[in-house]
Amino acid sequence: MALDLQHEPGKLEAGLDEAGRGCLAGPVVAAAVLLPPDFSHPLLNDSKQLSEKKRLLLKEVVENEALAWNVGIISAGRIDQINILNASYEAMHEAVTGLSLQPESLLVDGNRFRPYQGIPHKCMIKGDGRFMNIAAASILAKTYRDELMEILAGEFPEYDWQQNKGYPTKKHKLAIAAHGLTPYHRVTFNYTQNLTLFDV
């Protein structure tokens, strides 16, 4: 199914999406993207539906062709302070704040969002598979977060972050059980007493 460019044609509408909400380690990363009215790309889709090679190709396309784009990053420590939902909002707000163009409206992937600076917004369930501006944001959020996790993997190779990117895979959970938590783990997501509940 072909994606629509945006929800309100003719407006400066920024698509918003995040990556990393369900991870045990690393930041949550959000992106905001304003696409030109004539934008089109045959490969653009929800980042979860694409190979890493295609995501990296599209990352370059979006960065080069978007009217404006920005990424917001909220650390694991901040996630522990304010919880993952609030951290996701904060990452999205940070992404919008850094845009070089002020959007007239925001189109947000998912079903919840905290209003920002009085800018009208609309939430779209599975919006990353319906609208190009959200799909583009999903590409940037995913690729930037993956790159960060690959860098952090160099510090803590036993957790296999270069492969699992901080998600709760069997190998990741076994590494936590064997080695404990790193400074990049979200402590509120995996207290040691809950390790016995992990499906390992």
Top-tier CATH class of the largest domain:
Alpha Beta
Average pLDDT taken over every residue = 94
Q: Ranges with pLDDT <50 over ≥5 residues?
A: 196-200
Measured as a percent range, the helix fraction is 25-40%
Radius of gyration: 17 Å
CATH topology of the largest domain, anyone? Nucleotidyltransferase, domain 5
| CATH architecture label name of the largest domain | 2-Layer Sandwich
Counted up, domains total: 2
SSE order: EEHEHHEEHHH
CATH superfamily of the largest domain: Ribonuclease H-like superfamily/Ribonuclease H
Strand content: 15-25%
**Amino- and carboxy-terminal Cα gap:** 38 Å
Number of E-state strands: 5
Secondary structural class: alpha/beta
Largest sheet features: 5 strands, mixed
Largest sheet: spatial strand order? 3-2-1-4-5
Tally of helical runs: 6
C-alpha geometry: globular
